[in-house]
Amino acid sequence: MSNPQTVQPLPLEQDVMLKAEGIVKTFTQGGKSLNVLNNLEMKLEAGEIVALVGPSGSGKSTLLQILGLLDKPTSGSLRIGDRAAEKLNDAERTKLRRTHIGFVYQFHHLLPEFTAQENVALPQIIAGVKKSDAHAKAASLLEGLGLGARLDHRPARLSGGEQQRVAIARALANDPKLLFADEPTGNLDPNTSSEVFDILLGQVRERGIGALIATHNLDLAEQMDRILELKGGRVLPL
């Protein structure tokens, strides 16, 4: 008697670092409901750099916060790597965010009382890295971004471009698999903006990180692997 045929499990999407399905985000204001995200679906693969464009108020920041586990959708499913985010409790979401996700914002949000090196070491220390190791890695990251002479400088002594480079180093400190950036060069002059953007793309490509970068600058967007437009609460290829 022959053995029954073994049913093979469906293969995992190995290169997909992020998968969002049916994402809805509803806000209630003045007794009225507003759908900012409406049955949104998207994927982000390892090593892929995707631009997210759309007018102010279209929901780009809201989407980044949901994908980065800083907020929860009203409904829908979100997978980060092999983890179903909607099934995680708050502590598990925080741990996953800390170990898998990096953020870069338009404003650097550096801690003013800490040096550049300390700002980059801090997220590592919070994640459990020994202080001496965290400081050593912070120094290495900053040196790689051309800030070796600025390790002991506090943010007030750094230019806008230097502050944003520190923010990039901080986002990379825990070796994330995903990076989300919200207008990362929007507060810089055109020349500095181009320089910082080149640094960000270079670091992301070198590390094979999946990145979603919201920007109003179409010239920068066209340098990425593909462009998504957030329109009517959904993302569409541009």
Task: Please provide a written account of the structure.
By secondary structure, the chain is of the alpha/beta class. It has a single domain (16-237), classed as P-loop containing nucleotide triphosphate hydrolases (Rossmann fold, 3-Layer(aba) Sandwich). It is 33% helix and 28% strand. The protein has helices at residues 60-67, 90-100, 116-126, 131-144, 160-172, 190-207, 218-221, and strands at 16-29, 32-45, 49-53, 75-80, 83-84, 101-105, 178-182, 210-214, 226-231, 234-237. It is globular.
Number of strands: 10
Task: Enumerate the strands of the largest sheet in spatial order, edge to edge or round the barrel.
Answer: 6-7-8-3-9-10
CATH topology, anyone? Rossmann fold
* Alpha-carbon Rg, integer: 19 Å
Overall CATH architecture? 3-Layer(aba) Sandwich
Oligomer: single chain
Order of helices and strands: EEEHEEHEHHHEHEHEE
Report mean pLDDT, rounded to a whole number. Answer: 87
Spatial gap, N to C terminus:
57 Å
Major sheet attributes: 6 strands, mixed
Structural class: alpha/beta
Low-confidence stretches: 1-12
Could you give me the name of the CATH homologous superfamily?
Answer: P-loop containing nucleotide triphosphate hydrolases
Helix content: 25-40%
Count of helices?
7
Task: State the shape.
Answer: globular
Strand content: 25-35%
Overall CATH class:
Alpha Beta
Query: Could you say how many structural domains there are in total?
Result: 1
